[in-house]
Amino acid sequence: MSDIEVTVGICAYNEEQIIERAIRSVFSQKLSGIIVKEVLVVSSGSTDGTDGIVTRLSEEFPELRLFRQEKREGKNSAINCYLDNKTCGIVVMLNADNVFGTDDSLQKLVEPFRDPKVGITGGRPVPTNDKRDRIGFAVQMMWHMHHELALLHPKIGELIAFRDIGTRLPTDMQSDEDIIRMRLEQAGYVCVYVGDSIILNRGPETLEDFMKQRIRVNIGEYTMKKTYGYSIPTWNTRYLLRALVDSIHELGFHPVRMLDVALIEHKCRRIAKKHVESGKDNMSVWDRVDSTKKL
Questions:
Q1: What does the pLDDT look like over 212-224, one tens digit per residue?
Q2: Helix or strand holding residue 32 (H, E)
Q3: Closest CA to 66 of 104, 106, 27, 23
Q4: Is 0.85 topped by the overall pTM?
């Protein structure tokens, strides 16, 4: 059985707090039959110490390369940059503020590509927020529901791997993994959710940041529906209700807190829908949510 060579692509904008940990989590993965041929970091207009950290680490890890964009052009532009410079057919998309949660998560994420029908895989994001406070509970609930929904209908994000079939992303939109998945499905490939491939992330810590993030995400998903007629499973009420029921097994039954999260999300979706329908900017370049950089 031949080895699978992969490129790991990382988009970064002022990530000096966490990017070294993210990069080291790639090189600390235990792999068998899978080779990380290169790790490409695209720093999009960073003004902090991000570029210096990546440059220093490239002396330790020869597979690591830095591509610098002089101004911030948005995540899709950064993704296109590393796709245009990679040398592998399989690409792993890792966020600079996330780290692998286990030492075999990358192995599990990539292994399904031995089946030629598989075009894209997604791992399970696990937030480090404390569920005892209001926003921490909201973050935990959203990602638990994401996991349960993905078991019903694969919904991927935060950590994905995919076959590059030549898709490049529109730079006036923020949707990335959904567009890549859509193009792969149109080409006849299937999506696989890998629930035991763990990626650790940090959700927002304040209501303002939580809503900022959720409005942005919903703008992207609603734009996908409006522009391409592509349905995102997180907008399917039946899937959401099933995912909510299944999430109770892990979170416990907290009706007041769960209602609170549902009302916040409903408000965010209403704002996002109005934003898209009014023809406003698709938020290809968005404001940082600083409280998510404390992983």
A1: 999 998 898 888 8
A2: none
A3: 23
A4: yes
